[in-house]
Amino acid sequence: MRAWYLVPGVAGLAAELREVPAPEAGPGQLLVRLHAAGLNRGELTGPKGPAKPGGMEGAGEVAKLGAGVTQFKVGDRVMGRCPGAFAEYGLLDARETLPVPQRLSWDEAAAVPIAFLVVYDMLLAQGRLKAGEWLLVTGVTSGVGVYALQAAKALGAKVIGTSGSADKLAALKPLGLDVALATRAADFSDAVLKATGGKGADLCVNTVGGTVFAECVRALGFEGRLAIVGYVDGSLRSEMDLDALHSKRLTIFGVSNKLRNAEQRGTTVRGFAASLLPLLADGRIRPLIDRVYSFEELPAAKARMEANAHVGKIVLRMP
Question: Are strands 158-163 and 179-182 parallel, antiparallel or unpaired?
Fold first, then answer.
């Protein structure tokens, strides 16, 4: 089969198309003929190790069942976390696999697994977001940011979003963005306090990184929660206002699967299936696709993500 590999080079990771054997389904796994895969910034900006198969999530038809898999059958439409998803076939762990709702296309299904599972983790499992609360999302036009906005609105929350592009923010108005703050700088806390009547945000999702961490703390209200999700700015350090953390009784938490095992990730999948998947199934949430590229166009898709030109998810469509 054909598969894209990410190969380290002087200018970063390069995409290289290779011919490799199709994988075999082991115990608890599904072999899936992939129809589409989503791009994620993390795999393009993470540590540069040896060449590795590209892709982290995908959607397709079950081609073969590994031993012990009983909840799916050959031909089922499925989506999920899929290491090496930029390929014609991939392996999914049955514990992390979800059925594709009938109304979703392959492109939309491929845009769901990573971003929406992150959203479930940070908004519900750890963030405890409730109807009527204020959510602040820095970098709201990213894939995770857009899905956080959609999920929060479906849950009855109010959303403030920051972005360096006023045009991108305008594109999110139809999705219910309540307050749009066009800025890349750490200068938004006053505007957040004003929008919330001086109360501050109940939950903040920081997709930007260390350069806005302190400002996120300033923007939070009493018993506010701060989710650390990404580092688009490349900054892994920031000052910590211990007095604010102490007096406002803040909670700061990370959202990452790096150290979690498959069973722990499966717990998140089951929580998502119970709470957010029904909203996708009935159309209350619809994945926002920025652009779909053909399989051969992965280098162009990768360049668009690296240029930060997208709003929502970039998808690779298989032949």
Answer: parallel
What's the DSSP call for residue 66?
-
Phi-psi region of 91 (alpha: psi -120 to 50; beta: other; left: phi over 0): beta
Residue 115: CB atoms within 10 Å: 23
Secondary-structure breakdown of the chain: helix, strand, coil percentages, each rounded to the nearest 5: 30, 30, 40
Is the pLDDT at 47 greater than 70, yes or no?
no
- Structure confidence at residue 42 (pLDDT): 84
Tell me how far apart the alpha carbons of residues 164 and 142 are, in angstroms, rounded to a whole number.
Answer: 11
Longest dimension (CA), the chain: 59
Task: Say how far apart CA 113 and CA 103 lie, in whole Å.
Answer: 16
Question: CA angle at residue 317 from 42 to 305, to 5 degrees?
Answer: 35
Q: How far apart are CA 264 and CA 254, in angstroms?
A: 15
Contact 157, 135 (CB under 8 A): yes
Q: Give me the domains of the chain, ranges plus CATH numbers.
A: 2-112+287-317 (3.90.180.10), 116-254 (3.90.180.10)
Write out 255-316 in H/E/C secondary structure.
CCCCCCCHHHHHHHHHHHHHHCHHHHHCCCCCCCEEEEEEHHHHHHHHHHHHCCCCCCEEEE
| pLDDT tens by residue, 217-241 | 999 999 999 999 989 898 999 999 9
Here the tokens at position 9 are 């080079």
Nearest by Cα to 87 from 160, 6, 199, 201: 6
Say how far apart CA 55 and CA 75 lie, in whole Å: 22
What's residue 46's pLDDT?
Answer: 60
